[in-house]
Amino acid sequence: MKFGVYLVFAGAFGITQAQAGCPQGQEAFTSCQIEGRETEVFVCFDDQIATYSYGPIGGAPELQLSEPIERVDFEPWSGAGQSIFESVTFYNGDYAYNVGGGFDRPFSEEDMEHGPRRFGWVEVTESGEHAASLECIPETVSYGFGGGIHDIKVAAGQTWDPYSYTWVSDRIQPTATSTLQETSYESVIEYCLPASEFNLGGVHMGDPLGTLGKLGSPETIEDPDGRGEAIDRMMLVGMDIDIFQDAVFAMSTTSPHWEMPSGLRVGLTRGEVIRLLGRVPNGYTSTSQRFTAYVCSDIPVPDPEWTMMIDFGQDKRVSRIDFVSLAY
Predict the structure, then answer these.
(1) Which of 2, 225, 290, 309 sits CB 3.0–4.6 Å from 322 for a disulfide?
(2) Tens digits of per-residue pLDDT, 53-92?
């Protein structure tokens, strides 16, 4: 999909009659005019909100997005290399807009004489796939390193995690011992999740149907996965509970209101999940799009009974948590 075509469509979600620039009371994180187009981009902020706007130079924006400072996906400078640059990513449905600005540090008298070379960009993705790359006209780039969004997020009690490329709230603290526990099978060390963690909002894997009456009545689902078996399903706000032979054998949630005992829930950043788990699960990295962990067992077995799956969205936050039983 061409970027210009998309903006005409997306503009229906954010067109205003305001002129381009920062909203009243906000200052620019970065802005520029786009190479080869008569358009410009602004990322602005105050101590509460960060905003994105794109549109014709000096005209009404075709697309405007905003995000609370506490949740905004801001990536600070790594501290390495000749160039200093930072970026902010805004999300709109399946689309993501990564806007950055920066400059080359002067290392010679000639560099000092000519001043720093500035640069900027807009990278657009659709469902995580590359959609468009726009470059800024260097002499139009406005970007000032230091302070700004970084300091506001720190003041709000957040810490940047350079391994997961996410921010971690200081309110989320690891437990005294790692939630993911060490186990071994045939001399291979792995990490497992205690059975007590297979619990969402007080509903535990294996719970009998009779204990769930307060949540409502299940509906019979005929052969949901082609095995020839019918199951009962409770469809709650933000969570499904699947029941087979009068016991909970699967649960899934897409809502932050259903929380695991450790505090794991939808909406947390990848770095916050790693802090609560205590480590990255086997076979994954700190930037993986999914984490999987099996239930701990007193007697290690090749196929543990329960499995947890945590999926991360393109915003690097938990989008879904699933518990499944291999016994079904």
Answers:
(1) 309
(2) 999 999 999 999 999 999 999 999 998 888 999 999 999 9
Residue 216 belongs to domain with CATH number: 2.60.460
Residue span of the structural domain in which 106 resides: 3-156
Q: Which among 304, 309, 305 has a CA at the least distance from the CA of 319?
A: 309
What DSSP string runs through 225-278? Answer: TSSS--EEEEEETTEEEEEETTEEEEEEE-STTS--TTS--TT-BHHHHHHHHS
Query: pLDDT tens digit string along 24-43?
Result: 999 999 999 999 999 999 99
Helix (H) or strand (E) holding 148: helix 148-155
Q: Residue 91 CB: number of other CB atoms within 10 A?
A: 19
- Number of separate domains in the chain: 2
The reply to whether the predicted model has a pTM over 0.85 is yes
Please tell me which residue, 303 or 141, carries the higher pLDDT value.
141
Region of residue 157 (phi > 0: left; psi between -120 and 50: alpha; otherwise: beta): left
On whether both 242 and 128 belong to a single domain, the answer is no
